[in-house]
Design brief:
The complex is a heterotrimer of chains A (297), B (338) and C (369). Chain B has 338 residues and is of the alpha/beta class. Helices cover 36% and strands 21% of the residues of chain B. In chain C, helix 4 packs across helix 5 (160-173), helix 4 runs parallel beside helix 7 (192-205) and helix 5 crosses helix 7. Classes of the chains: A mainly alpha (297), B alpha/beta (338), C alpha/beta (369).
């Protein structure tokens, strides 16, 4: 049984219900959790950048290795060298935060430019960009990253440039799609006919009014992607190198002790990765449902 | 005689169809003439109706004369100035004087902007009026198109079809145009709303001295609002003249078919006639749809006159596509036998 | 009058608007009868509920809650049943002041039961043609193959070769040139008018008892429209098919319908024989019908270049249905004597002449009904 109830008599059309009242509870939960994660990451990043850490992350204490959480003085315990896990986890955010932002910036900015060229100019630029996008899409990202690492150096910024570039087609397609939708209703042609200059149409009408929500969503998902790539590479030893902490190399370092029963030093960063990526993903999905409407509706 | 505001001479517009990367690089294109040598003019404060079936090029003419798309050849003179080859920048100041009402109700209405913002933007395209002036102009526009104040806070998706159309018209009026190309302005609306919009457009013409190029397939409405009517078939004007003569003394067989198909639908007499099965006798008019332009007269493959006259060779002679001939009182027709 | 082939009684089909948290009363108590061999034309504007009525009759309403009450009695030779039989147990409605305020529907149960009732009816007993024929045809199959499939599925003709001959006959009957060549055409190679002819052939080839034609000419060019109307008129004579014809174009209805129902805001506001309802001099007429007829420019109006008689206001939004007459807000014939009634009480569909009913307080017959 599903019920359909008539709301208060005659809802005035202009005073639409506020977003949070129209939304489904789960979407709000997603977004709420996501925002919490973003806030935590941001705060931790600042703490790490300013060096306000609960402990010196490099200080070893061989008398207290692989300590469990809630050990006095070490809220989240210590690793195999007796270093404070909490401090290292906070500092680990440095490893992906700025590089991730770089990747997002590259894919959003360059993707938008490509999308506008393809959708707005059309013609040959559309054809060429479509082929370029397909080429990028069909190339395995990890192979490309390893190739870059092999030919330059294992620098996370190099890697993130690759992540940013491979993230462009999604954004470009999204924007080209929005433009195609606006074209269908003759929106763009009507704007030109009125005499609006091209830059107003592109920046104000297309990007600002019709793509900003989608871009924020894609940026959020892009951050999740960047974290995943960084941690995978660090885990494999291609990313951030010891003793600088990164969640990926922390998992890797802790994994050696996992089978001996000291599962915590690797589980803590793994949980951090899981919770953070989940946070960005859910934020993206939740925002998508809230701002763009579900199932294409 | 009032002054000629738009003069179009031998306008052509070809569309090319590109298919994929290889033909593009090889430079192989299929060219389709959407508008194939069309001439007409509009006098200030008059309405010229442009009728024809879908795909006949009437919308393309509207877009080309406003330079929303570039003509392949021909000449467009707006208010004494040749605008055929003007650059975008040179065109911009002229744009405000010539505007277009699109068939699509959503055209120009950014789905994420409220009506107020849409009108405000239109008012500030060419001028930088003060806030007080903007408020005054918005009130004036609402009054002109007969729209309630309360709609200003709505998004386009919250408006009915008729209201969207009114906002679309207000948006165009905001720049104070002289010429408006109205492309099927009523076809997306309900019958009862269509009449409102037709009345509104005529009112605006009277009060603001507008000139309309009225593109429509709705023959009675075109006949009602236009002084002159041009009938198009596959990219060409086949007949043009005063609205009354086109409606009541059509000379081109295609114009006759257009009007008779209307009469068929309307009159109960023809209705009874059809019920007796006699329509089948008119076979040749019957079943055909879009065909490739034939050599010679492009209407010949569908032409009842061509059949009746025993398929005269002149109709399909590649060297003689019938030109528009003047048959008096400014009535022109492109048929060997009219 | 013969026993109707299709009798719709008090049909209600509602939808739900999430954005506005409100019930859309798309079809709100509609009763219609179609006698065998007759064409009933339903005319109305967008949102009048005409298409939803037809879709409900064919069991093709997909949005929720959908059909919530009424009877759809089909009495053809092969099937005699109420297509909504026993479905009331899947729906509960809460009323306040005689108006439905909440609907509870067990959609799964309803669907299962409704599909059982529709078995052998949709496509076979009730065939439909739609506004956009191209989207209703399978783009990956030839016209001929689709016809043959329909014929073998729904008629006694089962042999491949025989079905093929029958299919070609149908293409001829809908006046498609060189049917043997067209047989192997795919829909994308055909024009809109040609697709509509193929669609009509497809619908009729199942030999249905009832044809539902939903806006069959809308979206086609004027000359093609009148050819399709011609075709439908001829097929009506040749096959005697009972038809429920839906159109916003009053001229199409005028040419094809024997009887007419004018719908506004989810209800029938006038019904009667076509000749009577549309007669130019008719006195007893719903103000909405009168306004609809007047909003099409007449030869007289064109000659005098006069203004069109427009109906003021907007088409009724079936969410905020007024208490009184649904047309009250736009009506120009309200008199002081009836104003109170118009504003507060919905008029009944009263008989103003034998077989001619009007839902308006102007006519004394309405009061007695």
């Amino acid at each position: 049984m599903r019920s359909y109830v008539q709301g208060p008599a005659s809802v005035d059309e202009s005073s639409q219900l506020p977003l949070w009242r129209r939304a489904e509870t789960m979407d709000l939960v997603y977004v709420g959790y996501g925002l919490l994660v973003v806030a935590l990451v941001l705060a931790s990043y600042l703490l790490g950048a300013l060096g306000w850490l609960p402990h010196d992350p490099q200080a070893m204490n061989v008398g207290l290795i692989n300590a469990a959480p809630f050990t006095p003085g070490h809220l989240l315990g210590t690793d195999f060298l007796g270093r404070d896990l909490q401090a290292r986890l906070i500092l680990g955010i440095q490893a992906y935060f700025l590089p991730g932002l770089l990747a997002i910036t590259i894919s959003v900015v360059a993707g938008s430019v490509l999308g506008i060229l393809a959708g707005y100019r059309g013609g040959w630029s559309d054809t060429i960009i479509t082929y370029f996008d397909n080429l990028l899409d069909s190339f395995p990202r990890l192979v490309l990253i390893l190739l870059v690492i092999a030919s330059f150096k294992p620098d996370i910024y190099y890697v993130m440039v690759v992540v940013g570039i491979t993230g462009m087609p999604v954004i470009a397609n999204l924007i080209a799609g929005k433009i195609a939708f606006l074209r269908q209703t003759n929106f763009i042609e009507a704007a030109h006919a009125l005499g609006l200059p091209a830059h107003t149409v592109i920046l104000k009408h297309i990007l600002w009014f019709n793509c900003r929500a989608a871009l924020v969503i894609q940026a959020t998902l892009g951050m999740a992607e960047a974290i995943l790539v960084e941690t995978s590479l660090s885990y494999l030893g291609f990313g951030v190198q010891e003793p600088t902490p990164s969640w990926g190399n922390m998992v890797q370092a802790g994994a050696n002790y996992f089978l001996q029963g000291n599962f915590w030093p690797s589980t803590a960063p793994a949980l951090a990765i899981l919770a953070t990526i989940l946070g960005f993903q859910l934020l993206g999905d939740g925002l998508n449902n809230l701002l763009e409407g579900k199932r294409g509706k | 005689m009032s002054h000629t505001i738009l003069d179009v001479t031998d306008l052509r517009k070809d569309y090319s169809q590109r298919r994929g990367l290889i033909p593009m690089l090889a430079g192989r294109e299929r060219v389709i003439p959407a508008v194939d040598g069309v001439s007409f003019y509009l006098r200030e404060n008059e309405t010229v109706g442009l009728v024809g079936e879908s795909g006949c090029g009437k919308t393309t003419i509207g877009r080309t004369v406003l330079r929303l798309t570039d003509p392949s050849s021909g000449r467009i003179v707006f208010d004494g100035r040749d605008i055929t080859r003007l650059s975008r920048a040179e065109l911009r100041p002229l744009r405000r004087e010539m505007q277009m009402i699109f068939q699509d109700l959503d055209a120009g209405l950014n789905p994420k902007m409220r009506v107020h913002a849409i009108l405000r933007e239109a008012l500030t395209v060419y001028e930088r009026p003060s806030d007080a002036e903007i408020a005054r102009r918005i009130r004036e526009l609402l009054e002109q198109v007969n729209l309630k104040d309360s709609k200003l806070a709505n998004f386009p998706s919250q408006l009915s079809g008729g209201e969207k159309r009114r906002v679309g018209i207000a948006r165009v009026l905001a720049v104070r145009p002289r010429l408006i190309v109205a492309d099927e302005p009523t076809s997306a609306l309900d019958v009862s709303i269509q009449a409102q919009v037709v009345n509104l457009l005529r009112d605006l013409q009277k009060h603001l001295g507008l000139t309309y190029l009225f593109i429509s397939h709705d023959l009675p409405v075109v006949e009602l609002v236009s002084q002159k009517v041009a009938v198009m078939y596959l990219g060409r004007i086949v007949e043009m003249g005063l609205a009354e003569s086109i409606a009541h003394q059509p000379l081109h067989p295609y114009t006759r078919i257009l009007w008779s198909s209307l009469a068929d639908k309307r009159s109960t007499e023809v209705n009874l006639y059809a019920r007796s099965g006699a329509t089948a006798a008119r076979g040749t008019w019957g079943v055909f749809d879009f065909e490739q332009p034939a050599s010679g007269c492009r209407f010949a493959p569908r032409c009842p006159l061509y059949q009746d006259k025993g398929r005269p060779a002149v109709c399909t002679d590649p060297a003689s596509e019938p030109p528009l001939r003047d048959v008096g009182k400014g009535h022109v027709v492109a048929c060997h036998f009219a | 009058m013969d026993a109707p082939l299709l009798a719709i009684e008090n049909l209600r089909t509602y939808f739900y608007s999430r954005a506005r948290r409100a019930l859309i009363r798309s079809v709100d108590g509609v009763s219609l009868h179609v006698a065998p061999g007759e064409t009933l034309g339903i005319v109305g504007e967008s949102g009048s509920g005409k298409s939803v009525t037809a879709l409900s009759a064919a069991g093709l309403v997909s949005a929720a809650p959908g059909v919530i009450g009424g009877r759809i009695e089909l009495r053809s030779r092969q099937a005699r049943r109420n297509l909504l039989d026993g479905l009331e147990r899947y729906v509960r409605v809460k009323e306040r002041d005689g108006r439905i305020m909440a609907v509870e529907k067990d959609d799964r149960g309803w669907r299962r039961r409704a599909e059982t009732l529709m078995k052998g009816v949709r496509g076979k007993e009730i065939a439909m043609i739609f506004q956009n024929p191209r989207s209703a045809l399978n783009p990956y199959s030839t016209i001929g193959a689709q016809l043959v499939e329909t014929i073998r599925l729904h008629t006694s003709v089962k042999g491949e070769g025989e079905a093929r001959e029958r299919a070609i006959q149908w293409l001829e009957r809908v006046r498609i040139d060189s049917p043997r060549l067209r047989f192997d055409n795919f829909p994308f190679g055909m024009s809109g008018g040609m697709c509509q002819r193929a669609m009509i052939a497809m619908a009729l080839s199942a030999e249905p008892s009832l044809l539902i034609a939903d806006e069959p000419t809308t979206g086609l060019d004027a000359t093609i429209q009148s050819r399709i109307v011609d075709l439908l008129a001829q097929l009506k004579i040749e096959t005697g098919i009972t038809t429920l014809l839906i159109s916003h174009d009053i001229s199409v209805i005028q040419r094809l319908a024997d009887r007419i129902a004018v719908m506004y805001g989810g209800t029938v506001v006038e019904t009667g024989r076509a000749a009577e309802v549309l007669a130019p001099q008719a006195q007893l007429r719903h103000p909405y019908t009168a306004a609809l007829l007047a909003s099409v420019p007449s030869a007289e109006a064109i000659r005098r270049k006069s203004y069109l008689q427009a109906i003021e206001g907007e088409v009724l939004d079936t969410i905020d249905v007024p208490r009184g007459c649904r047309f009250y807000g736009r009506c120009n014939r309200v008199t002081e004597a009836i104003r109170e009634n118009c504003a507060s009480l919905e008029p009944p569909l009263g008989e103003v002449a034998p077989g001619h009913k009007v839902r308006c307080w102007l006519y004394p017959a309405s009061g007695k009904a």
